[in-house]
Specification:
The protein is α/β, with parallel strands linked by helices. The protein has helices at residues 31-44, 66-77, 106-120, 140-149; strands at residues 4-7, 10-13, 17-18, 51-56, 85-91, 93-96, 99-102, 128-131. It has one domain: NADP-dependent oxidoreductase domain (TIM Barrel). The N and C termini lie far apart (36 Å). It comes from Rhizoctonia solani.
């Protein structure tokens, strides 16, 4: 039996599906393999319970957004699965030759969310945005205030 929990009243399986290894590896699996894995998780969930998928704006080698683009292709091919998933995406981070640099400024968060939505495409909405790292230049209170200002602290927000 699959254990469940809820986020804002939305029933979700307790064990999520992290998608990083589908794109942020030297030799990513094929779309066919990745899609089969995602579908298996969704199909194992009880009726009416969503599967928690976790992605990252930067989960890719070339391009950095490869994971989001993979999800775009998945939901374009299988739009019927969109409502059966709860998608959480990490962002607000700059990845360059020096490593990771968090950018939880208001502009950085907005830029990240806009990029995520663009790369996901029209078939799946972003359900939960997560700043990937704490930004030492921006207080957690400021970060939360920015997320709250735009309604991004709720799973029912729309951009």
């Amino acid at each position: 039996m699959v254990q469940t929990t809820s986020i804002e009243g939305i029933p979700i399986v307790k064990v999520g599906h992290g998608l990083m290894s589908m794109s942020w590896v030297p030799e990513p699996p094929s779309d066919e393999q990745s899609f089969a894995s995602i579908k298996a998780g969704i199909e194992a969930a009880p009726p009416g319970v969503k599967v928690f998928l976790n992605s990252g704006e930067f989960y890719g080698v070339s391009p950095q957004t490869a994971n989001l683009e993979l999800l775009n292709r998945f939901f374009a091919k299988y739009p019927e699965y969109a409502e059966r998933t709860f998608l959480s995406v990490k962002g607000a981070i700059i990845v360059d030759k020096h490593g990771f640099t968090p950018d939880c400024s208001e502009a950085g968060i907005e830029r990240s969310i806009d990029n995520i939505i663009e790369k996901l495409g029209p078939n799946k909405k972003l359900d939960l945005f997560e700043p990937a790292r704490i930004d030492p230049k921006v207080s957690i209170e400021e970060t939360m205030a920015t997320l709250n200002k735009y309604g991004w602290l709720s799973s029912s927000w729309e951009k």
